[in-house]
Amino acid sequence: KQEVTQIPAALSVPEGENLVLNCSFTDSAIYNLQWFRQDPGKGLTSLLLIQSSQREQTSGRLNASLDKSSGRSTLYIAASQPGDSATYLCAATGANSKLTFGKGITLSVRP
Amino acid sequence: DTGVSQDPRHKITKRGQNVTFRCDPISEHNRLYWYRQTLGQGPEFLTYFQNEAQLEKSRLLSDRFSAERPKGSFSTLEIQRTEQGDSAMYLCASSLGLQEQFFGPGTRLTVL
Q1: What is the pLDDT of residues B9-34, one digit of tens each?
Q2: Which of B41, B98, B103 sits opposite A93 (nearest CB)?
Q3: Quick check: A5 and A24 in contact, CB under 8 A?
Q4: Which are the contacts of A53, defined by CB distance < 8 A and separation ≥ 6?
Q5: Local structure of residue B43 (DSSP, 8 states)
Q6: Which of B5, B33, B98, B109 would best serve as a mutation to test chain A binding (most A beta carbons within 10 A)?
Q7: Which of A34, A96, A100 faces B100 most closely, judged by CB atoms?
Q8: Less Cβ crowding at N or C end of chain A, within 10 Å?
Q9: Of the candidates A100, A95, A69, A8, which has an alpha carbon nearest to the alpha carbon of residue B60?
Q10: 8 A C-beta contact, residue B87 and residue B111
């Protein structure tokens, strides 16, 4: 059974800092890995998807990497802004297309 | 707006009542998923459809829960005889095959 872990549960950083959010998963037989953003009380916004054959994906200030062999993914946020404050969730997609989520990391960027 | 939509956005009901939620996926997507999220947790998979066929159901989905996707378009999720433990955010997502899943805004259910 796939298990996804995100540590720490919460993170507070000053504006402008570069930061890395970590995600680990137990079963390397994944089809892809997605990173999502969730604002309080809202649905999920897809940020980046990395196929199992890829090593990284970039979108603007965001860069996500994937290392299947070690069961790890990271989300790098450059030059963080207060508007980046949200919960960030990673999810691994199995062959049955089911997403298994971590509990998320709640990020607070202080002005 | 061509994204995933869900209705209603909020539902408050009394214990024992039945509730039904609707999800309209992105029109060209053949897969539709239901997830449930409780406070402080990541979403948990409930069930998914490929076109009109329901292909997998989680053990989380008790006999009180039923989902349909008639004609492979919109989907409904019904909860019968609601319990306080059913209070959660119910999220719907859609995808084209095994590609990126796009989520709707969710339906927040409160059972009193």
Answers
A1: 999 999 999 999 999 999 999 999 99
A2: B98
A3: yes
A4: none
A5: -
A6: B98
A7: A34
A8: N
A9: A100
A10: yes
